[in-house]
Amino acid sequence: MKIRILITTLLVISVGVLGAACGGGNSSSGMKKIADQKISNDLTVTLSNADGKLKNGEQTITLSFTDASGKPVEISAASLNFNMPAMGSMAEMNDAATLSTSSTAGEFSGKVNLQMAGEWIAQISYEGKETGKTTMKVTAY
Question: Mean pLDDT of all residues in the chain?
């Protein structure tokens, strides 16, 4: 009886550790969500990276498109630009991400070099089953 309880306890602990190691809530690529935007009833775009936070400087990001049930949506092309409007004597800034398709449908990986910390507007254009543009506010630290 004691052995059965011990084995059950070890299995429960193992499942918990495995679940934590797999990073529940992360995308299939191991990235953590920074922000998402519902574009339509059946299309959501998600911006993510390894830390779940943008930072100033160069970094790797992922842009993914999913349907209402969270399944990938086939998007053939996407672009991502980070815009910081002019403030006072500071000129407007635009930092474009270089994106390429990944092995997952509707997922793009890329790099961006944000010039400074602060609030940015992620400007996203996409083509596929649906075609359009959207924006979302994000903060770089």
Answer: 85
